[in-house]
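Exercise 3.2. Students should predict the tertiary structure of the chain below and write it as structure tokens, then compare their answer with the key that follows.

Predict this chain's 3D structure.
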Amino acid sequence: MGKVILVTGPARSGKSEWAEILAMQSGKTVVYVATATENPADEEWHQRIHKHQQRRPQDWVTLSVPMELSATLADAKPNTCLLVDSLGTWVANLLEQDEVDWENTLSEFLETVQLVAADMLFVAEETGWGVVPAYPLGRRFRDRLGSLVRQLGTICEVVYLVTGGHVLNLSVIGSPLPAPKS
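Answer key:
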């Protein structure tokens, strides 16, 4: 298994920028795995994507992977560093899956992460720090992403929280929880 790092935090906290710095420091060929898809009718979304693209070095390979993340990870070469941005968008892309399909997708993803020889950096949004969403789809998103981040965090070598203009290495200052009971 390559080095696996999780970078998490709230919106606009600098998660992606920190993950990009870590990817550059890896000294490996960086493959940026974008889970977002462009929507030509949404100018504001286009600007967000463009801002991310402008920050990335030109020699990075970019893959658009809105859904088939496990297969993309499994195909990674050992001498690469994959930067997956973001798991929240990936979860949103799969919200229409029923619970059985989602659990299968999640299990496949977590198993794949543990088998890949490449280094992997995952960017994930923190959800659930506020009001419980009023709509079932919002609650499904929050619960799925929260569970994914917790489970991934237990198998990562390092977990960072980016918030308040600071990067905290949770692997140094925190203690991992036991695996959740099914």
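Discussion points: The helical segments are 15-25, 43-55, 69-74, 87-93, 99-113, 136-155, 170-173. The chain has a mean pLDDT of 93.
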